[in-house]
Amino acid sequence: MSKFVMIIFGASGDLTKRKLMPALYSLYKDNRLPEGFAILGIGRTEYADETYRDYILNELEHFVTPAEVGMKEFCTHLHYLSLDPAKEEGYAMLDQHLQEITGEKEPDNLLFYLATPPSLYGVIPLHLKTAGLNREHTRIIVEKPFGYNLKSAQELNKIYASVFEEHQIYRIDHFLGKETAQNILAFRFANGIFEPLWNRNYIDYVEVTAVENLGIEQRGGFYDGTGALRDMVQNHLIQLVALTAMEPPAVFTADNFRNEVVKVYDSLKPLTEEDLNEHIVRGQYTASGSKKGYREEKNVPADSRTETYIAMKIGIDNWRWSGVPFYIRTGKQMPTKVTEIVVHFRETPHQMFHCHGGHCPRANKLILRLQPNEGIVLKFGMKVPGPGFDVKQVMMDFSYDQLGGQATGDAYARLIEDCIQGDPTLFTRSDAVEASWRFFDPVLRYWSEYPDAPLYGYPVGTWGPLESEAMMHEHGADWTNPCKNLTNTDQYCEL
Ligand code: BG6
């Protein structure tokens, strides 16, 4: 086998320093990178190998805490080539460079990682092909969003299919690399007690939340042309819906698993005019106290109508889920960072006990918390000790910390390692990416046809526009909002 080289396009960018290098370093320190590996960074910024190593070492010291040994040695595996990935002429130089690094005439154990702005996703593979770098054992990882809408995703898929075989293409969605996302499958399919209840007969509705307490940071240029729907919903959130809603694959293989994901996407109930008007709430954060509003952020136009928050009610039209609404939401600058799925079971048919403190909990809730404080909480009613028959909700909770070991791991490390080993299970297949866009495309079209469609402001640090509460009230419910400073799984404000 030829020497393994990972080539990162966008090597001087944010993703590389925050996520990719720390992930590669963690694989390195656990001896999980191929023997004699090399990493070649590509970007327009000028660096010599040595200055690039210094730059990454510095960033690693910043992003890997507490600092660990071996970072300097890790950096000796780094190389850098300055070129403009949009221009074809640089690729012969890239080939030349790869030959020098590997000492081989035609190195083919190559992994290209596209951590660039999405506008380059279509250009780079074509240039790789022209330079003859799409060799047999080569793989390519492409960041999300894969496409800007259905049409552009289809076009991208065509380009990739003309350069690589599908098994060489790894569309990454780092949520699937999260230990706790994978655990949804284990929770559902390695236990007998929940699955019989996991359907329309026992589940009333489901919430999927992935919110953050940060703004767009330095990413105004990217974010303003993207928005929350493309950045979070079309990929991360809908993946979580798929994990929650999918059927168990008979055998757990990449294809079987990915077939089930596509089946969920294909079953998403097409959005009607009414849904577009009433079951989608988009918002944008506004200034509060010393915190800037979205329109004051760097590289964001003062009249931007890009959404930084979106809440939607969606349905899945199949035997298991017909009639069960899935409420999904994501937002920047919310009170806290949390990703979780809340499954609300149906109420008991009859209330025969007194309610503790006037609050009558009749429905069980199961919370699958992906981050932070990864864990699972089941809520159920218990008699309050003492005279009478007052019932109160209590919680049974499991925290991943209890499992010991590397409880949460790193999503990027897991996915990069899977790709190196040729396992595509946790990556998005071409048909899945298109099926997802097919569902969300009408929303994007609606917003572009009706630019004045409501975009609600919400002050930084709040739970989003009030209109999204109203959407939930239609179902006689409220969003499950965890408390502001989550320190353990049992902090739920509405208790
Ligand atoms: C990225 C989005 O894919 O996911 C970001 O582009 C977002 O906007 C991030 O902040 C959230 O990921 P995580 O793992 O921090 O929840």
From TrEMBL:
It is an enzyme of class 1 (oxidoreductase). Residues 185-479 form the Glucose-6-phosphate dehydrogenase C-terminal domain. It comes from Bacteroides oleiciplenus YIT 12058. This is Glucose-6-phosphate 1-dehydrogenase. Residues 7-183 form the Glucose-6-phosphate dehydrogenase NAD-binding domain. Catalyzes the oxidation of glucose 6-phosphate to 6-phosphogluconolactone. Keywords: Carbohydrate metabolism, Glucose metabolism, NADP, Oxidoreductase. It catalyses: D-glucose 6-phosphate + NADP(+) = 6-phospho-D-glucono-1,5-lactone + NADPH + H(+). One of its GO terms (biological process) is glucose metabolic process. NCBIfam families: zwf. GO terms for molecular function: glucose-6-phosphate dehydrogenase activity; NADP binding. NADP(+) binds at G10, A11, S12, G13, D14, L15, T16, K17, R44, K144. Pathway: Carbohydrate degradation; pentose phosphate pathway; D-ribulose 5-phosphate from D-glucose 6-phosphate (oxidative stage): step 1/3.
